């Protein structure tokens, strides 16, 4: 029985195994590559509420612009303005305000001022200043080449802003010429203390000739009138005295005139004046010392 089973197994091996070897191997299943995974979108930012601060508009202010002359040619804060002599109060927005004032004398004044909210600012524009001079008796004053009127030893004159040439002369004194700077809205006050004009000139000989010659002339006339001139030397003596006296008198007079001509008119020299500056704008008074 065992031998029959072994025989069957042998036959099965001889027949089945070659068939199994020729049979195709089962195909291996190929898996598809995984599809790419798209990244998840980021969440959109959430807008948070923002607090908005709204500033309240500034309250308007005002500008008091002081001028010393009427003018229709002014610009304040970019707007045309007509100004009258004195204080001009103008309502303006708060902040920096520029102004331009043109006067009839051709002077243009520009400035900038800050106008406070709900408050008042002040500014000044001057077209001229003043010169006040105190001089001695008989003095002559020239300002920029023009003779100024002297009244009671004083000269008060409106002048333009800037430098002015002042000349003061007085008989018997050395004249003085100087430049004086005048600021708008201010008075430049000058006291002209001039130096005495003393020139050493010897007129002794001239006066000897004048006095001696006059004495000889008088002597000759007296002799001729009260004596018999022929008893004191005759006519030659009389005419000699008269001639010598006349020569001495004329010579002394000419010499004195020559000396006076040599002295001539007191000179005028460049120099300085002591100047006191006073502010006359707005009724205020500020005294400052200057030397020009």
Main features:
single chain, 292 residues, alpha+beta, Immunoglobulin-like, 6-stranded mixed beta sheet, 18 strands, 25% helix
Summarize, please.
The chain is α+β, with helices and mostly antiparallel strands. It is built from three helices and 18 strands.
* Gap from first CA to last CA: 160 Å
Identify the overall geometry: rod-shaped
CATH class wording of the largest domain: Mainly Beta
Q: Please indicate the percent range of residues in DSSP E strands (runs of 2 or more).
A: 35-45%
CATH architecture grouping of the largest domain: Sandwich
Low-pLDDT runs? 282-292
* CATH fold description of the largest domain: Immunoglobulin-like
Count of domains: 3
What characterizes the major β-sheet? 6 strands, mixed
- Give average pLDDT, whole number: 78
Beta-strand segment tally: 18
In helices, the fraction of residues equals 25-40%
Discrete helix count? 3
Return the string of H and E elements.
Answer: HEEEEEEEEEEEEEEEHHEEE
Radius of gyration: 59 Å
């Amino acid at each position: 029985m065992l031998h029959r089973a072994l025989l069957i197994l042998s036959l099965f091996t001889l027949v089945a195994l070659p068939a199994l070897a020729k049979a195709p191997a089962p195909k291996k299943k190929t898996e598809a590559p995984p599809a790419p995974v798209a990244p998840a979108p980021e969440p959109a930012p959430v807008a948070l509420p923002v607090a908005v601060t709204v500033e309240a508009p500034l309250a308007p202010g005002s500008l008091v612009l002081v001028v010393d002359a009427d003018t229709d040619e002014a610009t304040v804060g970019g707007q045309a303005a007509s100004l009258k002599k004195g204080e001009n109060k103008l309502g303006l927005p708060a902040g920096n305000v520029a102004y331009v004032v043109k006067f009839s004398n051709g002077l243009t004044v520009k400035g900038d001022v800050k106008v406070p909210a709900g408050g008042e600012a002040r500014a000044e524009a001057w077209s001229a200043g003043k010169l006040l001079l105190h001089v001695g008796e008989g003095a002559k004053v020239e300002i920029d080449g023009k003779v100024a009127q002297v009244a009671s030893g004083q000269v008060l004159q409106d002048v333009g802003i800037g430098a002015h040439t002042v000349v003061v002369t007085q008989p018997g004194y050395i004249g003085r010429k100087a430049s004086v700077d005048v600021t708008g809205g201010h008075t430049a006050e000058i006291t002209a203390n001039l130096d005495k004009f003393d020139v050493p000139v010897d007129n002794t000989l001239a006066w000897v000739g004048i006095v001696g010659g006059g004495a000889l002339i008088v002597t000759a006339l007296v002799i001729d009138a009260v004596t018999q001139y022929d008893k004191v030397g005759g006519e030659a003596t009389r005419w000699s005295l008269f001639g010598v006296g006349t020569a001495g008198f004329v010579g002394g007079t000419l010499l004195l005139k020559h000396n006076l001509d040599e002295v001539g008119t007191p000179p005028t020299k460049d120099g300085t004046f002591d100047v006191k500056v006073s502010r006359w704008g707005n009724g205020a008074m500020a005294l400052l010392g200057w030397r020009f």
